[in-house]
Design goal:
By secondary structure, this protein is α/β, with parallel strands linked by helices. It folds into two domains: 141 residues, Rossmann fold (3-Layer(aba) Sandwich), CATH 3.40.50.720; 189 residues, 2-Layer Sandwich (Dihydrodipicolinate Reductase, domain 2), CATH 3.30.360. Helix content is 36%, strand content 25%. The protein has eleven helices and 15 strands. A nine-stranded mixed sheet has the order 14-13-12-11-7-10-9-8-15. It has a six-stranded parallel sheet with strand order 3-2-1-4-5-6, with helices on both faces.
């Protein structure tokens, strides 16, 4: 069964990554049509990938040859577009955040359940081969009990007049909403659910109304701790975009795996013959080993998972419920930053 895709929001991440690396390369998948309010953009993308172009949601959603819709529009549009797509009988993959309010996110999940349709959220970084390897190492006990995780994603994002990510009403926030959502989701993949959150947000460098600097501290249900730092004011070439997971038996450090790339590198440091504190001051370092894995394109894996969920009538790997929970943690972090206190989830 070939799964037929339509795209709402043909620019940005759709044209840069998800269409060429995901939809066009996924097995038994066909791109039927794309839609964008910018007609020139829609036509250009349609010509590039050999499909049809539309300038209205209604046109695309009325097509009988579209099974599933990928929504890659500004955050404030997600709710209405997801609901309309579901009501048109289409399965949906929506970029994160699922919505800007918990009430809207819950309504989207309920609508998908009511109609028996797949609703997936775009946490594509969970499919990264190195992230899957970290999860495997944790599950096997190779790191011992996880006690601390850190995820960093940062870039340079200057003032751009009219940029929706820089307008709170349209994007829901700045560096935390845009990049921190992925980082928090990854740490939950390794450490379990967040129980408490404390955050600091600032606009230090740019003149827009959303934060360009964010630091979030997490306590997971297990008692383990986490740190998430995101910035819109650090040059891209200076950003490490580092992922660290520490346990009672060792640690892993991955660089370049958080972001839009399917590649990167990772080092594991596993302790052997652990001794007491005094002895540890003189003995040698832990065993350090570069970890290699076969790369997996995260966008192709994401699309193929949604296809499999549709065919198998099952939940996708990243269901709407995950998007709801992630939004709940993010909103708690914003509340913490505003009120200057720890927020229990």
């Amino acid at each position: 069964m070939t799964v037929r895709w339509g795209v709402i929001g043909a620019g940005g991440i759709a044209d840069r990554r998800t269409i060429p690396e995901g939809i066009m390369k996924a097995r038994d998948t066909k791109l039927v049509a794309v839609m964008d309010v910018n007609e020139r953009q829609a036509r250009a993308v349609a010509e590039k990938y050999g499909c049809e172009a539309h300038s209205s949601e209604e046109e695309l959603l009325s097509r009988n040859d579209v099974d599933v819709v990928y929504i890659a529009t500004p955050n404030y549009l997600h709710y209405q577009q997801v609901i309309r797509s579901l009501e048109a009988g289409k399965h949906v993959l929506c970029e994160k955040p699922l919505s800007l309010t918990l009430q809207e996110a819950e309504a989207m999940i309920e609508k998908a359940e009511e109609l028996g349709l797949v609703l997936a959220v775009g946490f594509m970084m969970r499919f990264h081969a190195y992230h899957q390897k970290i999860k495997e190492m944790i599950d096997k006990g190779e790191l011992g009990d996880p006690v601390l995780g850190r995820a960093q994603l940062t870039c340079w994002y200057p003032d751009i007049p009219g940029a929706w990510r820089q307008i709170a009403e349209l994007g829901g926030g700045g560096a935390l909403m845009d990049m921190g959502s992925h980082c928090i989701d990854l740490l939950e993949m390794f450490m379990g659910r967040v129980a408490e959150v404390s955050a600091f947000n600032s606009t230090l460098t740019h003149k827009y109304e959303v934060e360009d600097s964010s630091l979030v501290m997490l306590r997971f249900e297990s008692g383990a701790l986490g740190i998430v730092d995101n910035n819109f004011n650090i040059p891209d070439a200076s950003a490490l975009n580092i992922l660290e997971v520490y346990g009672t038996c060792g640690s892993v450090e991955a660089r370049g795996t958080i972001g839009q790339s399917s590649f990167g590198k990772m080092v594991a440091r596993i302790e052997e013959n652990m001794e007491g504190y005094e002895a540890s001051q003189t003995r040698g370092a832990s065993v350090e080993e570069e970890v290699t894995v076969d790369p997996v394109n995260i966008y192709q894996a994401e699309i193929e998972d949604v296809n499999s969920a549709i065919r198998g009538k099952r939940k996708p790997a990243n269901p709407g419920e995950r998007g709801f929970w992630n939004l709940k943690v993010i909103l708690a972090a914003y509340q913490s930053a505003r009120e200057g206190r720890v927020i229990s989830i």
